[in-house]
Design goal:
Keywords: Membrane, Protein transport, Translocation, Transmembrane, Transmembrane helix, Transport
Protein name: Sec-independent protein translocase TatB
Number of helices: 4
InterPro entries: TatA/B/E
Mean pLDDT: 77
Number of strands: 0
Low-confidence stretches: none
Main location: membrane
Structural class: mainly alpha
GO biological process, one term: protein transport
Length: 129
Amino acid sequence: MFGLTFEKILLIGIIAVFLLGPDKLPHYAAQLGRLVRQLRDMANGAKDRMRDEMGPEFDDLDWKKLDPRQYDPRRIIREALADEDPFKEQSATISRAEPNPEGAYLKRKRARDAALTALEPAPFDSEAT
């Protein structure tokens, strides 16, 4: 937690004893304990309120998917480029899935690469720079 080891916490405690003195230290320790207790109660209250408002879906929610550390913009862009047309209307017919998903990925990649090579390079304006 915050990179604090036992030795660092002990050193902070010793410095606090010298700065605050033995008269005020119990009072400030009690205040710190109350603050930590209030923060824990607020967090539990928010969790309970969220559980009440969401209902049974709260327990089914996969919280690991919502972890911001899982956000990878390169993966999101790669998946967006792999899609052919997300707004294309899908037909009502049921198609059989391809047995090899790797093959489907390679087909999309080859089609995308062919489309990119078929494009002409962008015009260059030497006066614009």
